[in-house]
């Protein structure tokens, strides 16, 4: 089940990508995001919004990542939604931006919903975007 939707997904509809926690590799995640959203027939503006949201979420995580860390990204595809969960190991005492921050305003404006959590020395940001909801 996906954390954000509670809906079951078929194993074939989950894509896992791991890239170095370096800004130079975020293009890989943006491209994967766009490709999966296009597969769901998202509108072009919805695809671009989701690409920007993934980029912003990753930027938040890079700021708290340990040296030589990897970003783990899980894409879950359902009939009308794409869930993206990005996780990274964090430095001791790391904190993600507050929900009142500009970065969170961007995430919530560009997606249907956004969540964040820290546990076990890892930070995770989850994004859910439903096709054609008009947010």
UniProtKB/TrEMBL annotation:
Q: Which domain of life is it from?
A: Bacteria
Classification via Gene3D superfamilies: Histidine kinase-like ATPase, C-terminal domain
**Record protein name field:** Anti-sigma regulatory factor
Biological classification of the source: Bacteria, Bacillati, Actinomycetota, Actinomycetes, Micromonosporales
């Amino acid at each position: 089940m996906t954390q954000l939707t509670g809906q079951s997904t078929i194993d074939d509809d989950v894509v896992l990508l791991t890239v170095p926690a370096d800004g130079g590799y975020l293009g890989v995640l943006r491209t994967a995001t766009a490709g999966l959203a296009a597969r769901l027939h998202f509108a072009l503006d919805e695809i671009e919004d989701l690409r920007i949201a993934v980029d912003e979420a990753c930027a938040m995580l890079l700021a708290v990542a340990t040296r030589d860390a990897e970003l783990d990204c899980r894409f879950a595809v359902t009939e009308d939604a794409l869930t993206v969960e990005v996780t990274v190991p964090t430095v001791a005492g790391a904190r993600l931006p507050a929900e009142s921050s500009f970065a969170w305003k961007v995430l919530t404006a560009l997606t249907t919903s956004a969540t964040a959590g820290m546990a076990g020395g890892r930070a995770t940001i989850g994004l859910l975007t439903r096709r054609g909801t008009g947010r």
